[in-house]
Amino acid sequence: MAIQQLPIISYKQLDTQAERERLLWAASEVGFFYLVEHGLSEADLDAVLRVSRRFFALSQAAKEQVSMAYSPHFRGYNAVGQEVTAGAVDMREQFDWMNEEPAPQQLQYDWQRVIGPNLWPAALPPLREQLLSLTLRQTEIAVTLLRALCQALGVAWNALDDSFRDGPYTHSKIIRYPGTEASSQGVGAHKDPGYLTFVLQDQQSGLEVEHQGEWLDVEPLSGSFVVNIGELLELASDGFLQATNHRVRAPKPGTERFSVAYFMAAQLDATVPVLDLPAAMKAKSKGVSTDPNNPLLSQVGENVLKGRVRSHPDAGKAA
Ligand SMILES: O=C(O)CCC(=O)C(=O)O
Ligand SMILES: [Fe+2]
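^ 2-oxobutyrate oxidase, sequence as received from the core. Prediction below:
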């Protein structure tokens, strides 16, 4: 049956079997849901959207000081038109940050390019602390959600823990979609590479999810995160859960949209384990998708790097 609206899952109630069953339904039948009662207040979320608006309101020169062109590690600012998805230019500007780490002295693997320091704008000192503290809280929520999902999948609650025993690789971005002509893409159709994605939206719609061959609007729901299943969970569940295609429609001229995305992967040097699901789930699995344009890679660093290079082929070109 086609749905009109994404399911709503209560984080607070995930310690009940009934809510975990709803979670399993949402994750397997839709791949997308609203997460509510997750412990971050509307005031906390508003503060993040406010500091994000302040960043995008800086002069273009101040934003360009932290341009991703200076970061071989895919961090920093991209102006409108610098990102490509599904072969077309995305009409959004964005600022990306990941785990705060020094870059390795020598690269043993290509994917180690995604390890390195973040770029923080001198013109807006509070940005760093506010965004890093958001990430910490989101990671706590994501780990608990992933464990609840494991339980719902009929495997040990900690079956995926080993894949992030030293801490997950997390990637986040604040995003501004300026108003443009109706035919423009905010971001083209894609799947997210990690285990789970959280999106915080403001009051402007535009996010669309592919569901049973149609595009379903994800209307803003105050206080919620929109959560989706990423490619690593498709791999871990051997295709029982599917990473769901989604895209963002550019807002109309004279309006704009702000969002904050958080992508939780496993640790970069891990290989995603394949969970031994109950026979009934195995029987329903569609198998892992085999799109030649988007191979799913179970070595975590390789899958993360694949997504970053595709979106930002020019990262670090000025470094
Ligand atoms: O801005 C949004 O609502 C979603 C963004 C998104 O899908 C992404 O950056 O991967
Ligand atoms: Fe996405």
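The two ends are 51 Å apart (CA to CA).
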